[in-house]
Records
---
Amino acid sequence: MTATTSHTSIADYVLQAHALCCVRGERQLFADLDLQVHAGECLHVSGENGVGKTSLLRLLTGLSKPESGEISWKGQAITMDRSQYHRDLLFLGHRDALKDDLTALENIQMYAAIDDINLTQEQAFSSLWRFGLRGREHLPVSCLSAGQKRRVLMARMATRQAKLWILDEPFNALDVNAVQALQTLIAEHLERGGLVVLTSHQSIAIPKVKVLEL
Amino acid sequence: MNAFFAIIHRDLLLVMRRKSEVLTALFFFVVVTSLFPLGIGADVALLRKIAPGVLWVAALLSTLLGLQRMFAADYFDGALEQLVLSPQPLVLLVAGKIVAHWLVCGLPLVLIAPIIGIQFDLDASSLYVLMGTLLLGTPVLSLLGSIGAALTLGVRGGSILMSLLILPLYIPVLIFGAGAVYANSVGLDSTGHFSLLSALLILALAFVPWVSTAALKIAIE
Amino acid sequence: MSKQNNSSFSDNRLIHWFKLSSPSTFYPVAGKLIPIFWTLTVIFGVAGLWISFFVAPVDAVQGQGYRIIFIHVPASWMSMFIYLVMAAWAGLGLVFNTRLSAMMAQALAPVGAWMAFLSLWTGAFWGKPMWGAWWVWDARLTSELILLFLYLGFIALQASIENPRRADKAGAILALVGVVNIPIIYFSVKWWNTLHQGASVSLTKSPAMAQTMLWGMLLMALCFWMYSIAVGLMRVRTIILERESHTDWVRQLSEVKR
């Protein structure tokens, strides 16, 4: 059951935040923050540890509520139609969110069911193979290395068909090849008119990156 | 509805891969019920009298043990956030997790209770009543327990705290469940108890998934 | 919980109300109200105790010892009432996202728990000379015990969660679930009591109350009510200071500067 959208052009996909204020515990992390991300753009949120990068990303996903301010997607506040926003959104946090006792294939299929995506077995396999997991699809994820787990996540990103990717430290603990693969994946997504918001300690070799310093 | 069954399938699959967790709760039930004759004495008449209460309290405690599993694992590996961000209604996913929990922790109790009941010399009709009350009551235990599990997610000392929060709420189920078996064993009619248990089940089904969902969102913030 | 002048319900009053929902404006107002409520507590307390000790007649069956019901019954009433009020404040805090409402709930919980404990303790003191047992599993005492557990659960939950906002909201859900469950629990305990008709003793099966006894209990109930408000306001002021300690207005206060 996939939602039918009216003919939305690429230009309509915009993520906007206005006058965001974030309080964690009793500390105010940032106030009066504005941002805009358009189709095909990648926003790199940078700053020192503890300055509020993860908090900002969680605010953008709707997991946390801001102290004040509002966030809108395609011109509509995200609190209005959460289901639709979630459909367009893919979030990857610090932790892998993969079930260690399930195989890579089962994880992909499980997420497809939860994300309401029609995924055939062939599509799942080809996605896993694309990221170098041929022969490891039926291994429990606990047997995979950290880099290979991230590749399973990349396979999920590729099959998810979400417009907006919010990624928290996606390049952490990745080897050079995996970093390359992820950068290619993100670049392809941007070319298709997708949006990316990410945090990273390293510099990223992706064309047309906007930087937001917190 | 797709998400509902997908979650149940996922949780059951996870349990299959780690059967020891489930069996531990079941063994706990057996061990606890055995402690009472050891502590009180093997007087058959006395055992028959305390059997409904003992079995029901043991069922409560076993369910509490199993409640840790409901949300904690998903919370700590980040899968819970993904569930909250699913396009499908979170209530369905939470309801699915509760059903999976009941299938793993509640239903086995219903099936093994008659065997323990025989150890306490309950007669056949009381055994049927026991199974019936557990069948109606254990889903309520899973439902109410999900509220406690959601509220104490990630909190230090959460499991003991959860027990303190939920046990007072379990008391009506205990009273009606054990009361039905006791009434039957002394020859009284137990249909009143059954209708009250059913009422509790319907109330819990109607309201608790939403409450647990709200509690989960608060824990995730 | 503070009272405004009961003038006609105008827009002004609505604005006053919302201004009062900020901790910084509520703090001084509460400070001024506390002595008033302490005074009322003493007045009602003296009146109530005077009636209970000197005016109410000696009971034919129970002698002088029964007078402890003048503490026991009002304490039970207050423990129930405070739970409702606490749940209402917590619910308001959850719906309107106001910190002060949640702080009020947090302030009232120990007061209510203390009332429940007092009710149980005085119930035991009443039961021992009357029925020969320190504890009697009758419906009301058992329900009171369960109410005490509900209070302790609420307090424990709020104490265990480090993030204050999450503690507020989680506590609110627990309190609201508790409020819905209290009638169910009470009904089931009464059912249980009649089913297992063990001792047919009941602390409520006292003979018809003399008029003066009712008056005595009402006055003591009012005394406890004023006491609860006074202590509640004192506690909420402390909680405000704790939780708002990082704000400017708290640092400017004379009691903090000292």
---
Amino acid sequence: MIHLIYQIFIDPFVQMGTAPDLLVQTLWEGLVAGVLYSLIALGFVLIFKASGVFNFAQGIMVVFAALTLVGFHEHGIPAYVALALTIAVMFGLAFAVERAMLRPLVNQPDIILFMATFGLTYFLIGFGELVFGGDPKVMIASQLGLPKGAVEIKMAGGFVSLQKIDIAAAIIASVMVAALAVFFQKTRVGRALRAVADSHKAALSVGISLEYIWVIVWFAAGLVALATGIMWGARSEVSFALEIIALKALPVLILGGFTSIPGAIIGGVIIGVGEKIGEFYWGPLLGSGIETWLAYVIALVFLLFRPQGLFGERIIERI
Amino acid sequence: MRLHRVLLGTALAAATLLTVPLTASAADGIYVPLLSYRTGPFAGSGAPIVNGMADYLNMLNERDGGIGGVKLIVEECETGYDTKKGLECYEQVKAKNPVVLNPYSTGITLPLIPKAAIDKIPILSMAYGLSASADGNVFPWIFNPPATYWDGASMFIRYAGGKEGGLERLKGKKIGLVYLDAPYGKEPIPLLEALAKDYGFELKLYPVPAAEMQNQSSQWLNIRRDKPDWIYLQGFGAMNPTAVKEAAKINYPMDHLIGNWWAGNDDDARPAGDGAKGYLSLDFNQVGTNYKVIQDILKYVVDKGKSQTPKDRVGENLYNRGVLNSIIIAEGIRNAQKVSGKKQITGEDMRRGLETLNINDARLKEIGADGFAAPMKIACDDHNGHNAAYMAKWDGTKWVKGSDWIQPLKSKVRPLIEAAAKDYAGANAGWPKRSEACDKSS
Amino acid sequence: MFYREVGQYKTNYSADMSVMPLLQDRVGIGIILFIAVVIIPYFGNAFLIQAIMIPFLVFSLAAIGLNLLTGYTGLLSLGTGAFMGVGAYACYKLTTYFPGVNILIWIVASGFFSAAVGVVFGLPSLRIKGFYLAVATLAAQFFLSWCFIRQPWFYNYNASGAIEVPTRTLFGIPVTGATAADATRYYVVLGIVVAMTWLASNLVHGRIGRMWMAVRDMDLAAELIGIRLLRTKLLAFAVSSFYCGVAGALLVFQWYGSAEPAVFDVNLSFFILFMVIIGGLGSLTGSYLGAALIFILPIVLRYIPPHLGIPIRPATVDHIQYMIIGALIVLFLIVEPNGLARLWQIGKQKLRVWPFPY
């Protein structure tokens, strides 16, 4: 019994103290994982903020964007041209989704739109596999100018290795978040997006063109998906297995709030760090592998105390 | 309103289609279904394997007119590595009298094992599936040559011991197992635990949940903390390249990282590129196109456009694996024809044919696969053979030979297999005792 | 002309309040049951029974379970797969501890274990609503999946981590395991599913069902008129998990014959959720229709090209099938957001006034 208490409450901190380089490394890994989760969550937030749709297809859009990029490159197109072409494809996708899916489902309850994105997911899975095949592909990270290798910092008897690509990912994600936050706050289109998020009908009555707004917001989500795909793909490989990671964004959204862009990053970092620290120091007690559900439990505990998340809008229920 | 009518019309059409009989006609020829996964998260591994299998059998059709003069009917059934679809494929192909079944997924093999004896269709789960099914007395209808996962793990220990200067020198060392948190991944654990007791090394387990296959930083952080001397990688699909990349990231010595035979795909090491130089993987088939069988496949099938394989993928590790699988099938059919005296064999004949399989060096040379694989022999009580494998080494761009043939620690593996088989039969009340006769080997 | 209540007089209150007042409805159900009990096992081949009908019935039962929770009570749940898993593993442990007891009893009893787990994970529903609750149930899903893989007690410490179904008999006939005949297993599944559908129908047409629907429509107002939210919501979770648990036990014991933990992952939860939403939230018929569409249609689509003689590769057929299913889901949602059940109701409505347009 005492041994158990020691193991739960004291031993992990002892470990943290005796091997500070591992602690810093764990924190860094958590930060990186968090940033990557928040990139996915960002795509969700964008679409949810502007059209009230929880886009389940965000995961497959990440894969699709990455596959398109690599696919273009495989056909001999230089990297940056392929990037531009992929952006064009994502715009086309946003346009098609708006036309075929969102326009007919205007003003339907949220669950119906959520289900429609399920249908979109299935469609994109089939379409992606048909066009690109199921083989895993290598992300063209170096051709895009992303750095390789690592920065090694020697500290406290060990070393902390920071992968340059992870640093790049963190920087890119922060830039994106900042740009999007400015976009939503300062520009006319951003304000229109927020108006649409509040109420479709009211926005229409004020003269905002819903179709135009939706295409823009899905295109923005597509760009975020592309960035996410590049970053995740560079860390491992581009294949349909990436799509499963999208579910990890849900706890991030819970923590950060469904409609908050800075919340996505902060929530992501909290979940990422919490997950890695929990898995590394407390995981072996429970049998390890607790990463799969730790994030959800963290989110759940959070929900019980603050249902709208850190930055979300307060939910007011009226009769 | 019009859309409602459209929908009603579609529904009626679908209903009429449902009345289409879902049986198939049995054609004249030996039916070999290939359960494949060209879709889904493991398609990267599945596609080259089924390509190799289909190409070899089609080559036999084109070059020799089949086996013993009877053509082979090769048909693929897509499972997507999903057990539901696998079971559905099984029901569909059962009606056409297949002679052998290759489920190619541990998840699909497990439910089919009890059905094999009832439906009289032997299952060839080449080097995957249930390790315990190597015991032919408990599993007369299941075959898993040339080596089980337990053999593979024992070969890893033997290799590691060899590099350390002897198996006794493993005492006190740390051996890590990075595995997919699924029945496939857990297979080597009992053997490694038994060997840890025998040789005195410490076994550390690092499970990777299937949902976290591409997010393995925690596991490799743990490895950095524990510093195991040797690591065995029992992974599949997207787990492998991520693992290799993470190992390179933490500067783990690549020549101490050894993958099992499903972690030796080109796509597993290529993403890490130069960083994966020295990575070793167990293999029981050779790589490359420098063998008469592969040349024949190129001549009769690929160049004639009868194959789905892109020409530059012929000779890849997993492609050749598929070819080896088909070689076993073909030899089994040939044997079955000899043992039963019939040309148009059934599942029961195939079982006898597989049970008397004896592909020795001379036979390998005859079929043009000299040195392609180690010779393998199956006996009535040993449906595996516990044959040798070698280490392939990644040199930065391709796989090359990294060691000679390594024999498994058969004396350690066999008792465990028999114990596990007994457990299985005991846990499943009513498991039939072996009633099939044992033919003498050819 | 044919489907009207003209001439059907009710002479007592219970007949007036019956669930199926029209004679034609009762005849229709009778015909469906006749086809299910007599025609299909007699004329159907092994593929139809084993690969289509048994899974269809199992998924319909799970869809009914989820529909009770999501459709009737309005609590979105993504943990269906895990609750099915609890039922399957509970049945497995029960039958390994007490091999002598009839397996049917254990299949039904495993539902209670699943219900208990469902209640525990349903507790957050009191504070959390709507989409956030889905995340709470996802926590249940991933936690239970982890338990099935990482806690060896669940699979009796066997080396492969998978559970195998032992052969069990009922009146001397093998009912589970490889020796059980297709028809036997089909009848067991059919019997259990029909009985539980009847039970669910009575539940939703009665007081409890009305309580659930009140909670779904507006739980604040329901609380105001005196419905105890805690009990109602937890009861919904319990009953729903019971159904899912039994469905899970049937899935493993009567269909697969063995199971590895990956069977009850989050994909299964989404699969059942699709069925419920396409079929129609808040409708038992919808559960069946949704299960038929989501499960049977892909199979039919897969076999059309070979039958029509079009030489497409199986993998390509698979891809196209995904695309068609995805497009169909979106199409159905556009045309009829309330699901197939609503289409069915509209159809019946048209039939009542046929041949007149209104």
---
Amino acid sequence: MQRWKRTLALPVTMVAIALGFLIALQAQTQKNVSAAEQISEQRMSQMKAVLINSQEQNAQLQKEHQELSARLDVARKQVGTDPQLLVHLKQLQMLDGTQAVEGPGILISIDDRSNKVAFPLNTNDIATMINILKLAGAEAISINDQRVVGSTAIVLSGNSTILVNQVPVNRSEGVPYEVSAIGDQATLMDYFSELEAVTLKQRGMTVSIARKSLRVPSFKGSYTFKQAKHFDSQES
Amino acid sequence: MHLDKKERSLLGLSTILLGFLFVLLIKAQGVAGSQVTFQETAVPSLIKTEQENQQLSIENAKIQEELVKYAQGQSASSLLNQQVQEAMMNAGLVELVGPGVQITLDDSTRVATGDEDQNKYYIHEEYIREILNALWNGGAEAVAINGQRVTTHTEVFCGGSFIQINGTRQMPPYVIGAIGDSHNLSAALKFYGWDRLGEFQEQYGITRKLEVLDNIITPAGKLKEYRYAEPVKEGT
């Protein structure tokens, strides 16, 4: 010890103090972190439980819905509903989107997660895509299982959550965006690949279009008319 | 610099300690980071399922109501007629009148000078689509552009000197009428892109006008004949 230079004593003491301080701090942080970890884990498991619960409920409701719809069909037949009028009703409900439909069409999958993509797919891109599909005569369109109807608004909520029909469509896994369109496959394919797919591909996204027999879900929102009235009833 | 054995071992020990501390720190940081992403993705899917559940239960309640009516022996045709009327209203096949807002957009009367882009002096399909999107998001009940009712299949597509809407060629000025709560509609417009159009108005002289009117008339839309889409048979 005596051989240590005196000049070294001060720096070494300082370093020792600093080190001690650091260790104490680290120990403290470690404690905090493990506490935070625990809380976070708890929250996560709660969230998972809520999510699973809600998904179970969803499956249950869907089953109920199918059963009820089947019963409704039977009831309608029993009371002798005019089949022609029923067809007309179905046609109207296809137009307002409350009827789920199936038929030939195209399924567009867009992946914008690659790091080549500077600007991921935004609400405007989706609106443009849907517009082109409408131009190509699509009879039913859905994006990530949200049916597109006349009153569908596509807006951004916060930084990255895209709302379609007021429902977030962002996916946490799998293909980020899937657009289904029922209609003439050749026309849909032509219009989409020439007018929109090229631009998206240039921006680095992976776009694949497949001809498929599709099912487009029904519009789950509601129509409300509070201000609007029939025009003729007003005028008389 | 010459260090003796003791000093060297001290230095070595402190270095190891420091390294250990760093590793701990990084680990703690990593744990905190990874948790956030899961939560971010779990929340939207939770909201989505919850909303879907709500919509499904409303739909189920509706069907149940109808079944009860059938069971009570209510006339099948009157019930169906009522549903057809409702569906026609939803689908936009009824001429409506009500309070709301009227927006007028027109190309600039000025001509680009020098290097300026003449395109900036025109009204583009994007502007109209953006306004429609904002109006629907603001809770519009019915919207029409230049006498063309906006329905599920309405496209707004620029075809050069005109804009194609519902398969018809429309020229400026574009008059958009929307029935709904005028406060909500104006607020939604101001939130989405209205100010940007204001800048274009100042810079390039395009017309952008918003009026709150008591009697907006939206004509009836057309029914579409479906050749590809078919209603999904329920209960299968």
---
Amino acid sequence: MINKILSILYKDYKIEIKQSHLFFSVGLYVVSSIYIIYISYQPTGILSSEHWVSIFWVIILFSSISAVSKSFFQESGNRNYYYYYVLSPDELIISKLIYNFLFIVFVTFLTFILFTFLLGNFITSYSFFISLLLIGSLSISNCLTLISAIGHQVKNNSMLISILSFPVIIPILILLIKLSKISSSEFSWNLIQDDIYLLILLNIILVFLTKILFSFLWRN
Amino acid sequence: MKLIKILSVILLIYTATAGFLFDVPRLPILNETIRVLYFHVPMWFTMIFLLLLSSINAYRFISTKNSKYDLKSYNYAHVGVCFGVLGIITGMIWANYTWGTFWTNDPKLNGSAIGLLIYFGYFILRNSVDDESKKAKISSVYNVFAFSMLIPLIFILPRLTDSLHPGNGGNPGFNVYDLNSQLRIVFYPAVIGFICLGLWITDIKSKIQQINND
């Protein structure tokens, strides 16, 4: 099973190298949206951590939706037939989860670096914030993977993926925004304990549901 | 089903009369608006109950592929969302008299509004697919997924933060004021009555749809 997952990941990586315009388009999306924020906040720059945190996560949300929505579209119809014979749905969805996670980690860190470079940041505890970024990308990818699989089966999809994913992702985003605000003021374990546990719990639920529901969705 | 119908009629007549006429605890600010408990809270209970049934039926559909369950699941979601909208409206009227505004930035209010958005997304998803079997499969999968995200939104997140809403974030719920069960004797029948009404409406809707399909 692990071998198969690794080989799908390797194949996805190969496609990514070959069709690098998709990869760079997501990167450009992030860069240009951050540049718009940078210009619109001139000449003072962002002064409060609340603005910083909310704009930061909103940009990550939009760019990861466009990043994840392409993960299923690059599979052509014929290749899906091939997968159907060689792979179990679990193997496919786990590889997609890992692949989306890696992609969103890239998007998140690109956003963070650009934000720090152009707008500065308000982070007091870097180690906590970076682990929060990792957990955040994990939760966003867990949440969006199944939705993009649903969107893959519907024709008018790019619109639909955003409609379906916004409300579902909001509980996660609320927690992430709250935790980032804490990490930009004073930081202590007591303040974040409940939220972190809830986030981990939500992730476990999401992964299980994705795994169970995808096998039904895939069976055509 | 017959029992449900009779129960619903009797209990709702009782709720409507007793809810407006019986004695309630006199409290500052709340005054008579405490009677909203008999109408606002049962709406949400009914919504959650119907949406739970909807997602159970959705799961039954994807595991058995029987389109009867899909129809049921859709109807439960539809009626449940109608009750949710009524719950928001009654809550807004109450909020206008006690908090002085129709809408505030409160986790409970945001959670329930977003919860309704999830289900509006579900209806759009259903209408955007033409193929019947595909429509049923995709929307059932989304239904189960969406319901699991509704639970943290409505029940867990508001309890973690400060909230104006009674029963959340350290605010007392009605059971603190209800010393001699004045409120309970109307509240519990009201909940059962509204749930029965919801089941009844869903039943009629399913029957109409079945006749149209045949």
